[in-house]
Design a protein that fits this description.
By secondary structure, the protein is α+β, with helices and mostly antiparallel strands. The protein has seven helices and three strands, in the order H-H-H-E-H-H-E-E-H-H.
Length: 111
């Protein structure tokens, strides 16, 4: 598998490259992990979990994750407006990968 990966003349066509394009960036994996942990989360809750993130950055990341069909945005027609985010089935299928990243990090953390 690694040999094929290294020899592949067009890195952009690999599964690894595609997966990284979906979750790259400072916040996307954390957003996904929050949604895995808490199931359904509102915008301001996510903002609290992520600490130092601007509204614009969070909004942009959520829109990208939604357009990649990794999360579901549910808007309720009420006043004040209520919007909730949750993992889609496609997003849930990525959680084993993210969980393994956490396991690896715990086992290999340099103290």
């Amino acid at each position: 598998m690694i040999k094929q990966f290294i020899e592949d003349a067009n890195f952009e066509d690999t599964g690894f490259s595609y997966t990284m394009s979906l979750i790259s960036g400072k916040h996307k994996m954390v957003i996904l992990y929050c949604l895995m942990e808490y199931k359904v989360v509102r915008f301001n809750e996510l903002k609290r979990y992520l600490k130092n993130i601007s509204d614009k950055t969070l909004s942009t990341n959520l829109k990208e994750l939604e357009s990649d069909r990794l999360i579901i945005r549910t808007e309720y027609p009420q006043i004040p407006p209520k919007v909730e985010y949750s993992l889609s089935d496609r997003g849930k299928s990525l959680m084993d990968v993210l969980d393994q990243l956490c396991v690896w990090g715990e086992k290999n953390r340099l103290v």
